[in-house]
UniProtKB/TrEMBL annotation:
Origin superkingdom: Bacteria
Entry annotated with the keyword DNA repair: yes
UniProt GO molecular function: methylated-DNA-[protein]-cysteine S-methyltransferase activity
Residue span(s) of domain Methylated-DNA-[protein]-cysteine S-methyltransferase DNA binding: 18-99
Pfam families given in the database record: DNA_binding_1
Protein name in UniProt: Methylated-DNA--[protein]-cysteine S-methyltransferase
Protein source organism: Gordonibacter faecis
GO terms, biological process: methylation
NCBIfam families according to UniProt: ogt
Catalytic reaction list: a 4-O-methyl-thymidine in DNA + L-cysteinyl-[protein] = a thymidine in DNA + S-methyl-L-cysteinyl-[protein]; a 6-O-methyl-2'-deoxyguanosine in DNA + L-cysteinyl-[protein] = S-methyl-L-cysteinyl-[protein] + a 2'-deoxyguanosine in DNA
Length: 127
DNA sequence: CCAATGACCAAAA
DNA sequence: GTTTTGGCCATTG
């Protein structure tokens, strides 16, 4: 019906299926955890469309209420083009949720990666 | 349809 | 650790 869905100030005329799935996964990421583009793509049904996930993120609007700051690349580093203020803002948001960063400025994916796909070593061991 | 682009990923040098 | 190369697939002109 009509031309896809008009969202805020942007008109979405892409494969809503893929994007909807991506956004759904992003919404599923719990606070304090992060997810990689590749994982999101995989969950969305396109195991190799990691770039499209990033593209979807760039198209995200604030009104959608998506925690896109929890999506990082496979290296645990933040993209330079975070839509809501840049990587600096993204990092601040993540730290506010309890995400720890390494000295290199990358996120410790071993502790914050989500979902816990088959990794049995989620033992926090705080001390 | 073709070419270029992109918040990527992994392997190789 | 960095830089380069290839692949991946949807969007855009």
């Amino acid at each position: 019906m009509e031309e896809r869905e008009r969202v805020g100030a942007g008109l979405i005329e892409m494969d809503e299926v893929f994007f909807e799935c991506v956004y759904d996964q992003v919404k599923n990421v719990p606070a304090g955890s992060v997810c990689t583009y590749g994982t999101i793509a995989e969950l969305a049904g396109y195991p190799k469309a990691a770039r499209e996930v990033g593209l979807a993120m760039s198209r995200v609007q604030r009104a959608w209420n998506l925690p896109c700051h929890r999506i990082v690349n496979a290296q645990g580093t933040l993209a330079p083009t975070y839509a809501f203020g840049g990587k600096d803002k993204q990092r601040a948001l993540l730290e506010a949720e309890g995400v720890a960063f390494l000295e290199d400025g990358a996120i410790d994916l071993a502790h914050h990666r989500w979902p816990p796909t088959g990794e049995p070593e989620q033992l926090a061991l705080p001390l």
